[in-house]
Amino acid sequence: MESQANIGASSTESLKYKQSIIRSESPESTGTGQWGEQSPGARVNVEKAINEFEDLKRELSQPASTRSAQLPDEEEGEVTGNSMFVDLEEYLTRANREASESGIIPKRIGVRFRDLTVQGSGSGFLFARTFADELLGLFGKDIFDYIRFSLFGKKPPIKNIIQGFSGVVKPGEMLLVLGNPGSGRQVDYSGLGFESAKKEYRGEILYNSEEDIHLPTLTVRQTVRFALKTKTPSKRIPGTSRGDFVEQMLELFVKMFGMKHTVNTIVGNQFTRGVSGGERKRVSIMEALASRATINAFDNSTRGLDSSTAVDYIRSLRILTSLTKSTTVVTLYQAGEQIYKEFDKVCVIDSGRQIFYGKASEARAYFEELGFKFIPGTTTADFLTSITNPFERRPRADFDGKLPSSPEEFEATFRKSRFWDGVQKELLEYDAEIGGDAEKFTQAVKENKSKLTRSSSPYTVSFIMQVWYLLQRELQVIWQDQVGLRSRYINTIVCALLTGSLAYNIPKTTAGSYIMGGALFFNLIIIGWMQLFEAIQMTLGRTITAKQVNFAFYRPSAQIIAKTIADFPILAIQSSIFTIVLLFVFTTAVCTTAFYRAVGVFSRDINATIRMGFLGLNITAVFSGYMQPFNVMKSWGYKWIYYGSPFAYAQEALMVNQYDGMQIPCAPAHLIPGVPGASIENQICFFTGAEAGASSVNGTKWLLEQLGYERAHVWRNFGIILAFTVGYIIIAMIGIEYLTWGSGGGSMKVFVKRSNAKKATEGSLPTTEKQAGEDTTNHSANGNALQPIQTTKSVIQGQSSIFTWDNLNYTVPIPGSPPKQVLHDIHGYVMPGRLTALMGPSGAGKTTLLDTLSQKSRVGVVSGDMLVDGKRLRADFQRNTGFVEQMDIHDGTATVREALRFSALLRQPATVSKQEKFKFVEDIIKLLELEKLADALIGEPGFGLSVEERKRVTIGVELAAKPETLLFLDEPTSGLDSTGALSIVRFLRKLADESNLAILCTIHQPSAILFRNFDNILLLSQGKQVYFGPIGTNGSAVIDYFQRNGAPKAHLDDNPAEYILETTRASSRNADWGAIWASSPESKAVKEEIRAIAEERSQLPDRRTEIALEYGMSFIEQVKAVTERVWKNYWRDPNYGYSAIFSNLSTALIAGVLFFQSGNTVLEMQSRGFSLFLIIVLSPLIASGVQPKYLTFRMLYEARERNSKIYSAPALITAMHLCQIPYAILGTLFFFFPWYYMVGMATETSRAGYQFLFILLFEIWIAPFGMWIAAMCPDLTIMSIVNPFLFVVTNAFNGILVPYDALETFYRSWIYWANPLTHLVRGTMSNILHDVQVECSSKELVQFTPPQGMTCTQYAGDWLKNTSGYMMETAEGMCDYCVYKDGDEYMKTVNLDFNLRWRDLGIFCIFIFTNMALVYILHWAFREFHWKKFFRRVLGRN
Q1: What is the mean pLDDT of residues 504-526?
Q2: CA dist., res. 1062 & res. 834, Å (int)
Q3: How far apart are CA 1294 and CA 851, in angstroms?
Q4: Looking at residue 610, what is its pLDDT?
Q5: 383 vs 366, 379, 763, 1056, CA distance in Å?
Q6: How far is 1211 from 1223, CA to CA, in rounded Å?
Q7: 3-state secondary structure of 1425
């Protein structure tokens, strides 16, 4: 194979064009289209793309000084592309000679496999893990079960998934796999061996999944350029720099794939608007091409594309394979004839058995020779797939021999055929051919690598360069996410102002020292809150990292270092904004970020990330020495935790920076005794480090005696924090290199009832073993495939209504631009018993029209008439209309039966009893043949039902609603193989015939057989209608219309669907079909028919006599049903409940350990108060756990259930409120008992009961608090930025860190009282400190000398009567004073009153209901109400 280090510059032989390697079906155009296009919007032309590719390769092979003259003028569109293939062959010969002279060794490698067998173990199903399982696991049940299974458990049997596969895919060949080939450990890559290929040559073997996974905020140029940089070969043609190579290849790719116009557009994803879906597919293939891999595997990459775009995509793969002499293996679920012709070979699989392998052009003939009938109009790929399904394959009428019927018989027949002999012969020949190719290949790969890269490494560039390129990309990602960046800095400014104002005007005396220490301590906690999102980002970013690591772009550990370096400028700015003490705050922020990245790497999911991130923050903050100084910690174990806390070293540095060397004036209230006119000689400052007779305290002495802080430790601490940072980075690097979460595997069924699991999943693991007693004549490739339904009457019965639309227009607002009209004068109808297809090329407006007709559109302006039986749509139109979403959106924790029952219960009228609804659901389950899966969880892709099963559930959910008028379906066949797609469409056909429903269905890639099932077609192009009417036999009616109006003549074997899509595709070649239709007699006839229908049907009496209610059931019934579903979701997806219990228990244990059995000294009395701070920090932890759950339910509601009018948003919010209360009660139990009794609180029942009640109310308060924050935010990113601000407000201004009297008047007058946690602190602290007798320790006693001749009582007795504390006289005549006599005296100094504790509890209850109400209000304000329309009406701009 030619070396990809210089594409086309070195080949060992001339490129031979045989058969259909280059298969261009269109004549060369002289238009100015982009590379690979005839003209803008036209089909990809392989021949033209190759010629233009060769022109650029000629330019690349020139010396650098002459290249600029060779480039075509992009502005003028001059592209030379008319060279003949003989010129190409001549050029390749010359280029090979030049490359040989340059010493470049070509890379050439293929795939060969002999007797390939893949084995699997297990039952193929799991039982749903519930909250109870997680809770017991917290106490060791999982460990017990593991030991029990290891010692006594029965090992699952080993089964063959595929066995005995053999074949060869040579360089320059494309193999199409029909079926599920799996993967194997004994594949041989032309002499390299599988293990070697998997390790050092991983970068030469590319697997590209069907998902287009990219960083959404990067542009197309940045995405492809990054891939090119990481795969630029070390050895290039002389005169070509690394930068030149990258830019020239980038120019080649964007031109070849027609992406010049979108090169500066962000890639986007399902949440971020960017390039279109088809263009995103091209970005994926450009990235694959940039990887310069020798072997490429593409898994169902045409999913979701219309047939014309899918053809373009596969032709692009053809270009890739032919020009680079790479080896390509592709699996496709639905392959049209034009797609099939692009492949050289095909492998057909039936239940793990290889039943054909050979040339694609000979596969059909082989099975026809076996006696199977090819039905005219069927694509070859569909015919081959149908062979594996006994319900689809048909024998030839003239064949009287024995037909193979089971996979084993098909395999045996194939092994007796000439094709098997051909495979064996080809294997032997290829063994002889490769000879020294493997050695040359390894040498070529070695030459491509950087000199700083190990020879055994799969990566092309050195680790340092990987970090450099990742750093550039990371800075681009940060900068281009302007919303997130601005939000981050605005949040930092707001938090800085809040915390700064918290300590504003703090007295510069001893009265303000502890307050300043609390403010500095809280700053460190805020840093922890603000940086927590980095842990979440690491968890969410695993998919893109895993993909690019598999592409061998970079080591995952390089990403950790790049992200850390990218943090420097961002965190430097944040630190500068936040505080002037830059060095330690910045270093601590970097260290905290590194810690969170390590947490993100080692956490299984986002819930575990939040849980462990907050746990780490709490431990490091609590044991940092502020809440309890190091020198009074009760155990050496606590001190080791202190040593392991980066916050401890940062806190020391900040405090030393603030007070070292400072003389702190003694506050008047701290001068003991406060006798009027007393001499300073007879007073002392009540402050650690104070000396008798001094009016100030030395800051250095106070820091040392009270906290153990020294100036000499500052730079030591800086080094320790750096060491922690490096340690966290190393831990994260190790973890990301070796940990893989959730990788590999296929769909695994999850059941909730053990009684049904075994029966439902018998044989669910596809194996090659024949089960005893198995009826092989009814063997199916898909055991759960929808089979022909033997019913005589459908359980669904429509109302025989006709839905019409006329002069339908839709305009959407464009920010910064005039409104855009996306639908233009659309008209048509759907009749009972008729199946209507809605089709058009990509971007035609199909989904937009479907959303408009189904009343799903929530933005823009819709005009025109939409009528049911000539009458305006009723309020219950959406509820009585089924809409099958393309995305198959479900609650993954619900079973199939529960999902259908939920739909039936809430969407069918209240006049139908619950028993009747559930009986109807059972009928639907039988109709869709879901009986065996009825108690299986729907799950998520890869962990639950398969794509085809999930699609049937989606249809079932809509049918369970018993639609009376219409059934809309958006891409019901997307993601299914041809058999599954045909099963779904045939089911729709049967449903229309037997139920009298009107069905409208969008469809992308219909085969000819599938297309025949439709009655009518509505065809769109660029938002304009180009046809509406009957399809006709084999598409005769619609084809005849286009041919009569100037379209090219269709061939007899053309797929009618592909013909009309190609004909109406927008390009300069094609006519304006929208204008042709508008002026056609067919259009006028349709409009006349619509008017006639409206006039005739409007005179009929309305058959529905009940009131048209928006929702089928009352609000109370909605709440009951939704509460049951939410409860089951919480129970079966126990992350929220487990996180809440874990957080409560861990926080309680932290407090209990640190403040264990606090005594009666002043410090230990204050420790009881500090233990309350740990209750408060529960709110960020638990709120952050409930927010992702709220967003998930809201997404499900808005994506599907709001449009179907199943239930209202208030019903969902109410259900979540109700379901969280039991978890709040359980969380209180796990927190209260360890915390209350370990710390050593009062044991009286009334006091303990009050404390328990208040903590319970606080736990109930937390979840709505997190929910109303989430209600304001569009996504998790913005929410994580908003959270710290509200956490600061609630946690800082409650009187713990800064007492009431020290707060600024602005805060003291209203924010303090408006803060719910203020009343929590006031009530709970007064409850635990009331009547606590204080006994000062020797260090806490303040000793002063009375004037000569006076006793302590004579000197300070009158003063003591009016102040707190108690006084004792020593034998030497000195006075020992303790500042507090009991806890009530202390409470007076911080504005607390035991007698007001019930008032505080009552006020807090009001805040609970306020929180709950805010969720309803903010959801309505941010998600339901249309403010733009409101202001337009107010301003008179309708």
Answers
A1: 79
A2: 25
A3: 50
A4: 79
A5: 12, 6, 26, 17
A6: 20
A7: coil
Contacting residues for 1127 by C-beta, under 8 A, at least 6 apart: 1219
Residue type, 1053: D
Mean pLDDT score across all residues of the chain: 78
Tokens of 1170: 């500090």
pTM of the model: 0.76
Contact 599, 609 (CB under 8 A): yes
Tokens 């409101």 -> residue: 1430
For residues 25, 27, 30 and 33, what is the CA-based torsion angle, rounded to 10 degrees? -10
397-405 average pLDDT score: 85
pLDDT of res. 797:
55
The closest alpha carbon to 1347, from 677, 668, 667, belongs to: 677
CA distance 196 to 213: 27
Alpha carbon distance 1166, 1386 (integer Å):
9
User: Using an 8 Å Cβ cutoff, are 330 and 298 in contact?
Assistant: yes
Question: Would you say 221 and 264 are in contact if contact means Cβ atoms under 8 Å apart?
Answer: yes
Residues linked to residue 348 through DSSP beta bridges, in sequence order: 178, 356
Q: Is 825 left (phi over 0), alpha (psi -120 to 50) or beta?
A: left
**Do 380 and 364 meet the contact criterion of CB atoms below 8 Å apart?**
yes
Dihedrals phi, psi of 330, to nearest 5 degrees: -130, 135
Dihedral sign from CA coordinates of 1185, 1189, 1192, 1197:
negative
Distance CA 1148, CA 796 (A): 56
Q: Is the predicted pLDDT of residue 270 greater than 90, yes or no?
A: no
Report the b/e string of 1277-1306 with b at 16+ CB within 10 A: bebbbbbbbbbbbbbbbbbbbbbbebbbee
* Other CB atoms within 10 Å distance of the CB of residue 755: 9
Angle among Cα 292, 298, 300 to the nearest 5 degrees reads: 155
Q: Is 748 in contact with 125 (CB distance < 8 Å)?
A: yes
In this structure, the chain runs to a length of 1438
Residue indicated by tokens 């390039």: 275
Q: Specify the long-range contacts of residues 521-525, CB closer than 8 Å, at least 24 apart.
A: 521/621, 521/624, 521/626, 521/651, 521/1297, 522/1291, 522/1292, 522/1297, 523/499, 523/578, 523/579, 523/585, 523/654, 524/588, 524/621, 524/624, 524/647, 524/650, 524/651, 524/654, 525/617, 525/621, 525/1177, 525/1291
Angle CA(42)–CA(43)–CA(48) in degrees, nearest 5? 100
Tell me the H-state helices in 778-835. none
CA distance 1360 to 1358: 5
E strand or H helix at 960, and its extent? helix 947-960
Nearest to residue 845, comparing CAs of 683, 719, 606, 1020? 1020
The separation between CA 1378 and the C-alpha centre of its own chain, rounded to angstroms, equals 59
Tokens linked to 208: 């590209």
d(CA 1134, CA 681): 66
Q: At what angle do helices 1245-1272 and 1316-1329 cross, to 10 degrees?
A: 160
What's the token pair of residue 1261?
Answer: 């308060």
Nearest residue to 724 via CA among 612, 656, 626, 624: 624
Please answer whether residues 544 and 214 qualify as being in contact, where contact means their C-beta atoms are separated by less than 8 angstroms: yes
Q: Containing H/E element for 970? A: strand 966-970
State the Cα–Cα distance between residues 253 and 224, nearest whole angstrom.
9
* Residue 562 amino acid letter: A
What percent of the chain has a predicted confidence (pLDDT) above 90? 19
Nearest by Cα to 548 from 458, 468, 479, 609:
458
Strands 881-884 and 835-839, by their bridges, are: unpaired
Q: Give the tokens for residue 1163.
A: 């410090």
